[in-house]
Amino acid sequence: MGTRLAKDGKNKNGVYFRSQSEPIVWKIGVYIRLSVADGNDVSLSVKNQDAIIKHFLEEEFREPYKLYKTYIDDGISGTTNDERTSFQEMIKDIEGGNVNCVVSKMLSRVFRNYSDQGYFLEEYFPRMGIRFITLEAPEVDTYRNPNVVHGYELPLNGIVNDRIAESASRSVRQTFQNMRREGKFQGGFPPYGYIRNPEDKYSFIIDEEAASIVRQIFQWYVVNRMALEKIRRTLNEKNIPNPTGYKVSKGYKYQNPGVQGSESFAWSARTVKTILQNRTYLGEMIQGKLTVISYKVHKQIKVPEDQWAAVPGRHEPIIEQEVFDKAQELLELNKSMKSCQSEPSLLSGFVYCADCKRKMHKRKNGKRVYYACSTYYKRNKNDCTSHFTKADIIEKAVLKAIQLQISLVDVDGIMEGIAELDEGEWRSEQKSRKKAAKAELKKLDKQLETLYLDYNKRLLTEKEYLSFRKKFRTQKAALEKNLAQMDADQKDETQKQEQRQWKEVFRKHQNIAALNRPLLEELVERIYVDEEKNLTIYFKFGDLFR
């Protein structure tokens, strides 16, 4: 039977120790994960994992415990932790003191990344005083057998799982890529104007209700020559929901992350333009516009248009080719006309609403020029207020703020202690040092992996293995510390260089008497106007001189 832990659950080294007091009551968090890659494998199902763990707790676990919570990530990849919401919730409960024992069916359910497995088992869990148990090989119980973490079986298992995850990810991505090349739809929701074909889930059929709006938009733009803004306004006046609102009205659990509230159902000129440019309405299946960096880094990046998967004739078109081509011609013409227009007005692109954070647009009333919230005037009057503010009031306030900022900065004093140096030479040397350090780190990681394999093959004794591992980890820690210092030095040098640059800017504008566009572009980031017409100005030099 286990015994009560110390107040923080561990000694100063993060290791459990026993006392002769009352038994420990384990506060258990059960973690279950089902990946999309698991498919229909019954042995890996959520129900199966839950049943195995419950049987263990009820029939085999002979120590006092309380089941705090079962955390389930269903249909989630195990290669990254940030996507696993239940895993993150479990970590928060650990840090809140609600969980001191984690139980899972097997290591690969919790960790499918070698480095993460090492971090949690060797650093995080011991530091937090967490007992970790898995029920299938390799079986782990860090309370009953803490040395299991430092043997060779777990690291080897982590390496194998890491490689399996990479291979599975590559296989899944190749499968999806092949399906895209065949014109098989891989998305969650078909484009506005279409629904999934009930007889072929990989293709579309026309949704006549939404398709009629698509045709109307092309009619207004190509035949009636209505501007994008007028089309937007007309659609909203007719209370026609935009694509997001339409999906919600049909019962789909769909949300556009870029907008909230009733605003998400209002049309914008950008949405109208997107529809006019969408080749899906010609019957083409276009996919693969975005991709992820790797199986571990799920950040999306844009794919060049010539690399998209475009398959013509996959579904019935809504728009004829001639009409679509004419729309593209008009869009390009309007773009060219805009580029030929006069220079932008003084404050254009700088003034934002302090409440909804959208741009404020210039409006005229006779000779008076003022700025007003674009959400109020162009989207939905219920989502914001007008924030009506005269342009000359904003201009005077900004000029005064710039003059004040420049007067507060000691142009000559800011250079004290900043040694002039050949920045190019310093950066080149720093880049070379960092490159060498990263290469050495990569080499050490490879040596650590090889070390586990050699130990497993009995090419090394346990003493030799532990000695080499300690040596490599010490070298790795020193390199990581050195890299962190180089990053800090580079950040410090970058700030000093920015100070030198701003010094010259301030000198140039010390006697400024009037605003001009180049001055604003050089110094000002954004200007926020609140409902009471109060201004908050953000300068590009930020906190450099505070």
What can you tell me about this protein's structure?
The chain has 546 residues and is an alpha/beta fold. The protein contains 15 helices and 17 strands. The protein folds into four domains: 26-165, Rossmann fold (3-Layer(aba) Sandwich); 194-340, Putative Large Serine Recombinase, Chain B, Domain 2 (Hect, E3 ligase catalytic domain fold); 351-411 and 516-539, no CATH class; 413-508. It starts with 25 loop residues before the first strand and ends in a 7-residue tail after the last strand. The strands form six sheets. Strands 2-1-3-4-5 form a five-stranded mixed beta sheet, with helices on both faces. It has a three-stranded mixed beta sheet with strand order 12-16-17. A three-stranded antiparallel beta sheet has the order 13-14-15. Helix 7 (228-237) packs across helix 9 and helix 13 runs antiparallel to helix 14. Keywords: Coiled coil. Residues 27-183 form the Resolvase/invertase-type recombinase catalytic domain. Residues 191-337 form the Recombinase domain.
Number of strands: 17
Radius of gyration: 31 Å
Largest sheet, strands/sense/barrel: 5 strands, mixed
Percent of residues in β-strands: 5-15%
Number of helices: 15
Structural domains: how many? 4
Q: Class of the largest domain, according to the CATH hierarchy? A: Alpha Beta
The averaged pLDDT comes out at 79
Span of the ends, CA to CA: 59 Å
Strand order across the biggest sheet?
Answer: 2-1-3-4-5
CATH fold group of the largest domain:
Hect, E3 ligase catalytic domain fold
Low-confidence stretches: 1-20, 257-262, 414-421
Helix content: 40-55%
**Class computed from helices, strands and strand pairing:** alpha/beta
Q: Which outline best applies? A: extended
CATH level-4 homologous superfamily of the largest domain:
Putative Large Serine Recombinase, Chain B, Domain 2
CATH structural architecture of the largest domain: Alpha-Beta Complex
